[in-house]
Design goal:
The chain is of the alpha+beta class and 164 residues long. It is built from 7 helices and 5 strands, in the order H-H-E-E-E-H-E-E-H-H-H-H. The protein has a domain of 109 residues: Homing Intron 3 (I-Ppo) Encoded Endonuclease, Chain A, CATH 3.90.75. The N and C termini lie far apart (46 Å). The chain binds zinc ion (ZN).
Length: 164
């Protein structure tokens, strides 16, 4: 992947930023296409120089923010917040795939946790994106819409924890 070229492409940076919902220091959810693993997908690069391709949004965001050298070969960009579509640079850390797997087993059992969402990571990310876009279109409270979209994935979260 020509990350250095993609991260330096002005049109790519503009297209990426337009699809990120900024909430200050809280998770910045992706507003574009979501993959089956819950990750944002976006077309980056340009056909003119042959770099046009669909990439994972948070990996593109990571190299835009930190430079391609900050992502050594074979590394992945992990989410410390466990929201797979989050685009907030403060919630990313480069690591190895096995770190991701360890995190998943350590945290996915928690009631109400992002990794425990009944809809799966893609269902959750799509629901949050649609809630934001819907609230923006109608002038509704975006934060309330996000909270409702998140809560809908854990309908039995509270009763489950009392059974533990
Ligand atoms: Zn986040």
């Amino acid at each position: 992947m020509p990350w250095a070229l993609l991260a330096a492409d002005e049109a790519t940076i503009r297209r990426y930023r337009a699809k990120v919902y900024d909430r200050g220091d809280r998770c910045a959810f992706f507003l574009g296409a979501i993959s089956s693993s819950g990750h944002g997908k976006i077309r980056a690069g340009s056909r003119k120089n042959g770099t046009s391709r669909v990439v994972t949004a948070h990996v593109l965001g990571y190299v835009i923010a930190n430079g391609a050298d900050a992502l050594p070969e074979g590394h992945v960009v992990r989410h410390t917040c466990d929201e797979s579509s989050c685009q907030l640079p403060a919630h990313w850390v480069a690591g190895e795939r096995q770190d991701n797997i360890r995190d998943y087993y350590a945290r996915s059992h928690r009631a109400g946790h992002a990794l425990n969402d009944a809809r799966g990571p893609d269902g959750r990310a799509n629901a949050i994106r649609d809630a934001i876009l819907g609230a923006l279109a109608t002038g509704a409270d975006v934060e309330a819409a996000i909270a409702a979209a998140i809560a809908a994935g854990n309908p039995s979260g509270e009763s489950q924890s009392t059974l533990d």
